[in-house]
Amino acid sequence: MPSVYDQAHQWAVENFDRLTGQQYESEFLVAECKRLLQDYPGIGDKKWLFIYSPNSATSFFEVADNLPRLMVASAKLQSVASGGGMLVGADFSRRWGTPQCVGEFTPLIVASRYE
């Protein structure tokens, strides 16, 4: 079975172009990312927060509430603000640990390219 990261990444790649985004300033994206960590804190609640930045060298990143990961997230969100991308919530809390566990993915913020 693919990992949480792999499933969320695949969903982001397959769905990003189908979504309608708008332009956001990077400061807003960073503030929202920090706020959304309350709802998507990681393994404890089986809910993860990811950044999808298709124009970055590494297009997918798992956000966590620690300084190194928040610093990388801030840099990634600069790229999202200028080149487009999204914050994705991945919820695996239903049926965790069973073969029937399937993630639910939510495009929390979709950013279009800055023109």
What does this 3D model show about the protein?
- This protein is α+β, with helices and mostly antiparallel strands.
- The protein contains 3 helices and 4 strands, in the order ααββαββ.
- A 4-stranded antiparallel beta sheet has the order 2-1-3-4.
- Helix 2 (about 25-35) crosses helix 3.
- The longest helix is centred in the middle third of the chain and has 17 residues, at about 65-85.
- The termini are far apart.
- The model has no long low-confidence stretch (mean pLDDT about 95).
pLDDT < 50 runs, ≥5 residues: none
Summarize the amount of helix as a percent range. Answer: 25-40%
Helix and strand pattern? HHEEHEE
**In order across it, which strands form the biggest sheet?**
2-1-3-4
Structural class: alpha+beta
- The coarse silhouette is globular
Largest sheet: 4 strands, antiparallel
Number of strand segments: 4
Let me know the average pLDDT.
93
